[in-house]
C-alpha cells in the first residue's frame, strides 16, 4: 500500500496533543463534572481530521500489526462488559459514572488504535521529545523558584488548578499530593512546578531522563545537538526530581538504572561514574537549598525509607503524610472488591461509589482493572503488557540497523524500549494511569515508533531481495 493513500494527520497537531499534556491542571471548560483540557480538544480535532480523510478524501487505514488492535479491543470490551455488575448493586449515580468512564476511556484509548493504523512520521516524535527536553528546563527552573517562593510568600508560589476533575470526589480538600497544597517539612515544600502533585513532576523528570540519557548511553543521535544544553537539561532534571521528595520518582530512577545496566551491558565502572556525578549534583542541591529551608532533603529521604522498612512503622518512625501504606491499602481494597464480582468486576469507574469500598481509587492499573473489570480486564491488561514486551524485544533486535541511514529512528527505538519498561512497571506496581490520556499518549508514541520500524525492516528486506536477484543474474 502506498503511503500517500494512507490517512496522514498534520505533524503540528500530533505535537500539540503531546505538548498539551503539560497543561493538564488547566481546563477549557467543564462538562458534567469533567474538565475538558487542551489534550481533549486537540484529540477531538485529530479524530475529526481522520474521519474527514477517510470519508471524503478516500484515504485508507494501514494497520501494521493487527494483533495490537485485538489486545486494545479486548481491554475496551472488558471496560464495557463490566457494566453488567451494576444491575446487582448500583444506583443512578453509579450508572452515570460508568457511562462517563467508558466514554472517556474509549476516547483516550482510541489514540492507541489510530497510531498503529495511520501514517505519522518518526521525525514528528523526535520533535515532540525535543520540545519536552526544552520544556523540562523551564519546568524545573520554576520548581526551584517554588522552593524559595513558598517560604517567602512570593508570587506564583502555587498555581491555581482550574481543571474541575481535580476537585471532584473530595480532591479539593488538603490531602497532600493531590493538590498543589503540598505537604511541607518545616520550611521545605515539595516541588510541583506546573503539575498537580510532586509525583507527577517526578514522573515527568524520569521521562526526560530517558530522553536525555538513553541516546548518550547507546551511541545514538542525541535529541539536541548542543552538548552544553543537553547536560544543563540533565542537571535541571536531576535537581527537579530531587526536590519532589518522591519515593515514586526514586523507585523509577533505580528501576531505570537497573534496566540500562542489564540491557546495555554497561560496565559497572561507567555506571559508577554516572552515579557519582548524580550524587554530586544531588549533594550540591541539598547544601544550597538548606541555606533557605534549614532542612536536608537527603535526611528526609533517609527517614522516610527507614520508617517504611522499620518494624515500627505503625509508630512514630513513619514520615508524616507517607503515601506508601495508602497504596497498599488501596490494593487490598481492590482485591476485596474483585472477590465480590470476580468475572465482571464491580463496574468501570465505580471504586468510589461501591458500598464496601474504603478508597476513592486504586493506585495500580492492574489492580484497578481487577476490581472494576474483573478477570477479563486483568487478563486483557496482562496481554497488553506481554505484547508490548514483545514489541520491546522487536525494537531491541532492530534498533541499530537504521543508525547510519535513519539515525533519528534508531534513537527513538532505544527510547521506546525504556519507555515501555517504565510505563508498565509504574502502572503495575506504583500508580493507575490506564484510564488517563497520559498512558495512551505514551502507548501511542511507542506504536508510532514500532510502526515506522516495521516499515523500515520491510523496506530493507525488499532491497536485500532485489540485490540478491541482481547478484544471481550476474
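^ C-alpha cells above, recovered residues below v
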Amino acid at each position: 500500500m502506498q503511503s500517500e493513500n494512507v490517512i496522514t494527520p498534520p505533524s503540528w497537531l500530533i505535537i500539540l496533543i503531546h505538548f498539551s499534556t503539560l497543561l493538564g491542571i488547566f481546563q477549557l471548560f467543564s462538562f458534567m463534572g469533567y474538565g475538558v483540557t487542551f489534550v481533549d480538544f486537540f484529540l477531538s480535532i485529530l479524530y475529526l481530521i481522520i474521519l474527514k480523510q477517510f470519508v471524503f478524501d478516500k484515504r485508507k487505514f494501514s494497520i501494521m500489526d493487527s494483533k495490537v488492535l485485538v489486545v486494545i479491543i479486548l481491554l475496551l470490551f472488558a471496560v464495557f462488559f463490566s457494566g453488567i455488575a451494576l444491575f446487582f448493586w448500583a444506583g443512578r449515580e453509579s450508572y452515570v459514572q460508568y457511562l462517563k468512564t467508558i466514554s472517556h476511556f474509549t476516547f483516550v484509548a482510541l489514540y492507541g488504535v489510530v497510531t498503529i493504523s495511520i501514517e505519522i512520521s518518526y521525525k514528528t516524535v523526535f520533535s515532540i521529545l525535543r520540545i519536552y527536553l526544552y520544556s523540562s528546563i523551564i519546568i524545573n527552573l520554576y520548581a526551584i523558584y517554588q522552593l524559595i517562593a513558598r517560604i517567602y510568600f512570593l508570587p506564583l508560589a502555587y498555581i491555581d488548578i482550574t481543571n474541575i476533575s481535580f476537585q471532584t470526589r473530595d480532591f479539593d480538600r488538603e490531602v497532600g499530593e493531590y493538590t498543589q497544597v503540598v505537604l511541607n517539612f518545616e520550611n521545605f515544600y515539595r516541588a510541583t512546578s506546573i503539575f498537580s502533585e510532586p509525583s507527577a513532576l517526578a514522573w515527568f523528570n524520569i521521562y526526560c531522563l530517558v530522553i536525555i540519557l538513553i541516546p548518550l548511553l547507546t551511541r545514538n543521535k542525541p535529541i539536541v545537538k548542543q552538548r552544553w544544553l543537553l547536560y544543563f537539561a540533565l542537571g535541571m532534571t536531576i535537581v527537579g526530581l530531587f526536590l519532589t521528595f518522591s519515593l515514586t520518582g526514586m523507585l523509577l530512577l533505580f528501576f531505570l538504572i537497573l534496566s540500562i545496566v542489564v540491557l546495555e551491558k554497561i560496565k559497572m565502572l561507567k555506571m559508577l561514574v554516572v552515579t557519582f556525578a548524580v550524587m554530586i549534583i544531588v549533594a550540591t542541591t541539598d547544601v544550597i537549598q538548606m541555606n533557605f529551608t534549614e532542612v536536608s532533603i537527603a535526611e528526609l529521604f533517609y527517614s522516610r525509607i527507614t520508617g517504611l522498612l522499620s518494624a515500627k512503622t505503625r509508630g512514630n518512625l513513619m514520615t508524616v503524610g507517607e503515601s506508601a501504606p495508602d497504596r497498599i491499602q488501596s490494593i487490598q481494597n481492590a482485591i476485596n472488591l474483585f472477590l465480590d464480582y470476580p468475572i465482571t468486576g464491580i463496574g468501570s469507574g465505580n471504586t468510589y461509589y461501591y458500598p464496601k469500598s474504603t478508597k476513592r481509587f486504586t493506585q495500580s492499573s492492574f489492580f484497578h482493572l481487577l476490581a472494576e473489570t474483573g478477570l477479563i480486564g486483568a487478563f486483557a491488561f496482562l496481554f497488553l503488557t506481554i505484547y508490548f514486551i514483545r514489541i520491546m524485544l522487536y525494537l531491541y533486535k532492530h534498533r541499530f540497523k537504521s543508525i547510519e541511514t535513519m539515525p533519528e529512528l534508531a534513537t527513538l527505538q532505544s527510547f521506546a524500549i525504556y519507555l515501555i519498561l517504565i510505563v508498565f512497571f509504574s502502572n503495575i506496581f506504583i500508580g493507575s494511569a490506564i484510564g488517563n490520556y497520559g498512558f495512551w499518549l505514551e502507548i501511542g508514541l511507542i506504536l508510532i515508533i514500532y510502526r515506522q520500524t516495521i516499515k523500515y525492516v520491510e523496506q530493507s528486506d525488499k532491497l536485500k531481495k532485489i540485490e540478491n536477484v541482481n547478484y544471481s543474474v550476474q
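Residues 128-322 form one domain.
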